[in-house]
Write a structure and sequence with these properties.
heterodimer; A: alpha+beta; Mth169, Chain: A; 3-stranded antiparallel sheet; 35% helix; 28% strand; B: alpha/beta; Rossmann fold; 9-stranded mixed sheet; two-stranded antiparallel ribbon; 11 strands; 23% strand
């Protein structure tokens, strides 16, 4: 199976890169974009063919390495 | 006394730290490869600056899993003095040896310049030779030195007097313009609850000889030599003295 892990800064954490991108978009005339949060995206190819264990494994590696729980949270999709 | 300077793939201040320990301080030192599993009887551990493991994923994220870090944690848990400089500070944060995390600098720029930091507390093995309130002019060089901790953690580390260095003006005043990276509470350096593990973004090893433009970093490095010396520093890190510090005299034995 494939697991997709989306890691983003927690809402309470200031994202200077996202802010800069939002400012750039504003200056390009995209006034409709109010804010931007930048994150990381991982695709994990997993041996298992069972969605529950795929999700559990993805969550384990996200907790251990992919995300820093002090500043980041993550979301997982499996298919 | 003997320094262990840990070398990760991508460390680039390891030789500077080694030079400072040996040529400047007159102590012995070993470069210890990150895959080693022994600190070789060192009395103090330095995690140097650089870009350990290319800073892939997050700064310090991969270095945390290097085999030597298990030994560093054991050494720290026994009260041994550990200093992480710049990238080494980031490694200590990722390894959970210090609280908090680093974000990209507020202005997104890599900042490479001399800054001023004020010594807030002198009861650590890396500040015990300094005066409280002393302002040090030491260079930084980093893109991710914007220290962050959730408010409850921040409150705890301030209450525990763990913030040992803050970015200030040359005369020691807090000023947002003197904060090069946006660190919360202008935090430039921290110690652990046990006070023996210290992380700092400025590079003391780059400010310890007149040729380098400043010798203000010397007091950081001399502190640990004094802390471990027979006479020692005053306060809890005095060897054989003090009432609350860890028993440093047992380290390295």
């Amino acid at each position: 199976m494939r697991a997709r892990v989306f890691v983003t800064l927690k809402p309470s954490v200031f994202d200077p890169q996202g802010r800069t991108i939002a400012d750039a978009l504003q200056s390009l005339g995209y006034g409709g974009v109010e804010d931007v949060r930048q994150g990381k995206y991982f695709e994990l190819e997993l041996k298992t063919s069972e969605a529950g264990s795929a999700r559990a494994l993805a969550a384990e590696v996200a907790d251990k390495l992919l995300a820093n729980p002090v500043i980041e949270s993550y979301r997982i999709e499996v298919d | 006394m003997k320094f262990a300077v840990v070398v990760f793939p991508g460390s680039n201040c390891d030789q500077d730290a080694y030079h400072a320990a040996t040529a400047v301080l007159g102590q012995t030192a070993d470069l210890v490869w990150h895959k080693d599993t022994s600190l070789k009887g060192a009395d103090v551990v330095v995690l140097p600056g650089g870009f350990a493991h290319g800073d892939y994923l997050r700064t310090g994220a991969m270095a945390r899993f290097s085999p030597i870090m298990r030994e560093v944690k054991v050494f720290a848990d026994r009260g041994g003095p550990v200093i992480g400089i710049c990238n080494g500070f980031q490694v200590l944060l990722e390894a959970g040896l210090l609280p908090g995390a680093m974000l990209r600098n507020r202005g997104l720029k890599y900042r490479c310049e001399h800054v001023h930091v004020r010594v807030e507390h002198t009861d650590t093995p890396f500040t015990c030779a300094a005066r409280q309130g002393q302002v040090l002019r030491i260079p930084i060089g980093h893109g991710e030195g914007n220290y962050y901790a959730p408010s409850d953690v921040l409150e705890r580390i301030e209450k525990n007097r763990q913030v040992i260095l803050r970015y200030t003006t040359p005369d020691g005043r807090l000023d947002d313009g003197a904060n090069p990276n946006g660190s919360v509470n202008a935090i430039a350096g921290l110690c652990s609850e046990g006070r023996n593990v210290v992380g700092m973004m400025p590079h003391p090893e780059r400010a310890c000889e007149p040729l380098l433009g400043s010798t203000d970093g010397l007091v950081i490095l001399q502190s640990v030599v004094q802390a471990l010396a027979p006479i020692g520093c005053e306060g809890p890190f005095a060897r054989g003295g003090g009432s609350q510090g860890p028993a440093l005299q047992t380290i390295g034995s």
